[in-house]
Design a protein that fits this description.
It is a single chain. By secondary structure, the protein is an alpha/beta fold. Helix content is 33%, strand content 24%. Strand 4, helix 2 and strand 5 form a beta-alpha-beta unit.
């Protein structure tokens, strides 16, 4: 047996020893909708919990929140049916504005917009980028019951009809992406995003959990206060093709999308294992440690307490966030860092160190990476190995057996292991 593990823009081939029979947790095979465009049209024509787009009256201006290039949302397929429907309802293209939801990422540039939405859409409607650090670009609409300031992009807030476009994928503390997240995080202020992300320490702010998740509940409350009128969300398969589209009410349609997504991303595993070999899924998800961290959260769901996680991540851009590395250097153990984090004021960048250590506290972690040296590995509190074979040998020594129970997660960041 040879198992291909994504690593950067290539693969690492791992041949398990003869006495090891690993469980390989692949995403479930989900065929794409036969007609991707028609699937989106069908969803728009049959909204869940909402009236149809043509039933919204007195609409002069429309704002549509979209994702930036860090998310593989197929805007070129989703946007044309929405714009077509709006035009039929009498809305002029000049009164439709796409707002690129960058969150705390860098501002999206005009050079990227054609790649993002396609030439036809770009030439028809307006497009601007959000900037979370520009207070002049935001308007304050109040505060959620959890204390999050509802400061969002003013161009979105001032539109007659407010739409959010996005995809539904596992998220390590919001449960799943999609729904109100495209507005609250995509078009929110730095204060809004920071306040919401500070809830990640709650025991219910976890991967795959939506109901009863305070971070997700907070997003939904932002959506209610801001007034999201309509969403179009898609569920993608392993090839980034649309399997299903949902549209309508930003909570009801989103929850239906989550139900469909679970059928693809939730993968059964027989039980906890001694060793998990995991990859975020290759480039760009293993561009740096800051991004690759997400794979540990998924692997932690299946590894035994005191077991070993082997993280294969190229990390060609190194750690990726100075605050993350600096915070790691300030503590000697994962538990010490987590205790300090809970006592300090929440700070973006630093939060990834907490999430990293939450996984390290459960399992010894070995990093296989060409771009992270031994000194940096020590700061990150992980063991560094040059090859996957070397890492597996070290993992067996750690758990003191040559016949460990092993799971392999080639695309961990999109996979939720379910025991049973």
């Amino acid at each position: 047996m040879s198992i291909a593990i994504p690593y950067g823009q290539k693969f690492i081939a791992w041949n398990p020893p003869a006495n090891v029979n690993p469980e390989i947790l692949y995403l479930k095979d989900a065929p794409a909708a036969k007609d991707q465009l028609e699937e989106v049209r069908k969803a728009i024509e049959n909204p869940i919990g909402s009236k149809r787009l043509e039933d919204f009256e007195g609409i002069q201006s429309v704002a549509i929140a979209i994702a930036d290039l860090t998310r593989p949302v197929p805007h070129k397929t989703i946007l044309p049916p929405i714009i077509e429907k709006l035009e039929k309802n009498g809305v002029k293209p000049d009164n439709i504005t796409l707002i690129v939801g960058t969150g705390l990422h860098r501002v999206s540039t005009e050079d990227e917009w054609e790649q993002l939405v396609g030439k036809e859409v770009l030439n028809k409607v307006n497009i601007i980028s959000h900037n979370a650090e520009d207070s002049d670009l935001q308007v304050n609409l109040g505060v959620t019951s959890k204390g999050t300031p509802v400061e969002i992009n003013k161009h979105y807030a001032e539109a007659d009809l407010k739409i959010v476009v996005g995809m539904i994928d596992p998220h390590q503390f919001e449960g799943f992406t999609g729904g109100a997240k495209g507005l609250a995080i995509g078009l929110g202020s730095e204060r809004l995003i920071t306040a919401n992300h500070s809830m990640l320490t709650d025991e219910n702010s976890i991967l795959g959990q939506v109901e009863g998740n305070p971070a997700r509940e907070d997003l939904d409350e932002v959506g209610k206060i801001a007034g999201i009128d309509f969403i179009v969300n898609v569920v993608l398969n392993d090839h980034k093709e649309i399997v299903k589209a949902v549209a309508g009410d930003f909570i009801k349609a989103h929850r239906e999308g989550v139900r469909i997504a679970r059928e693809i991303v939730e993968v059964p595993v027989s039980g906890e294992v001694d060793i998990v070999i995991t990859s975020p899924g290759g480039f760009p998800k293993d561009l740096n440690v800051y991004q690759a961290q997400k794979a540990l959260a998924h692997a932690s769901l299946v590894v035994k307490k005191g077991g070993v996680i082997i993280l294969t991540a190229e990390c060609r851009e190194g750690v990726g966030e100075e605050k993350f590395l600096k915070t790691m250097a300030e503590s000697a153990t994962p538990q010490e860092l987590m205790d300090k984090f809970r006592k300090r004021e929440f700070e973006m960048g630093v939060h990834k160190a907490f999430l990293w250590c939450r996984s390290l506290a459960k399992a010894h972690t070995i990093l296989v990476s060409d771009y992270i040296d031994g000194k940096t590995s020590k700061i990150l509190m992980v063991q560094k190995c040059r090859t996957l074979e070397e890492a597996f040998t070290e993992a067996c020594k750690k758990i003191r057996t040559d016949s460990p129970k092993v799971a392999v997660m080639p695309k961990a960041s999109s996979t939720i292991p379910v025991q049973g």
